[in-house]
Amino acid sequence: MFDWGQRKARLDLSEAQQREIIATYQKTVQTAFREVSDALVARPHFEEQIAADEETVASNQSLADTTELRYLNGVSTYLEVLDARRDLFSAQQGLIQLKANSLQNSVTLYIALGGGRDALVRDSQVASSGPHR
């Protein structure tokens, strides 16, 4: 009764800490939902881009092959062959980078859905142990 408001102060502190914990939890949940949403939205975009870039690489490969044949038959210069190969190389690099971004997106989605290093280790141990008899 004569604690000069210490109990009230401790109660206020506990309530403030509880509000802080709840706010942190809500922020964490919202961040997880946003990460999952972003990763799921990006998946079809990556698939479309990869398909388009694969067509570009195939087209550049065909152009490089044709240009080299033209050079071997004396119709074009070697500079044209080098340009075609450079364009092919650039297209291949773009495709590789896009595939890497797609894989990173998949990892981000996996982690956002609750996967992580411990789950990866456990899954690899289960897979390597094979069926039990």
| Mean pLDDT across all amino acids | 87
The whole-angstrom Rg is 29 Å
List segments where confidence is low: pLDDT < 50 over at least 5 consecutive residues.
Answer: none
What is the number of beta strands? 0
Which structural class matches the secondary elements?
Answer: mainly alpha
Helix fraction bin: over 70%
Strand content is under 5%
For the sheet with most strands, the description reads:
none
Please describe what this structure looks like.
The protein is an all-alpha fold and 133 residues long. The chain has one domain (10-118). Helix content is 86%, strand content 0%. The chain starts with 5 loop residues before the first helix and ends with a helix. The mean pLDDT is 87.
Give the helices and strands, then pairings.
Elements: H1 6-72, H2 78-112, H3 117-129
Helix pairs in contact: 1-2
Question: How would you summarize this macromolecular structure in one to three sentences?
Answer:
The protein has 133 residues and is mainly α.
Features:
single chain; rod-shaped; 133 residues; mainly alpha
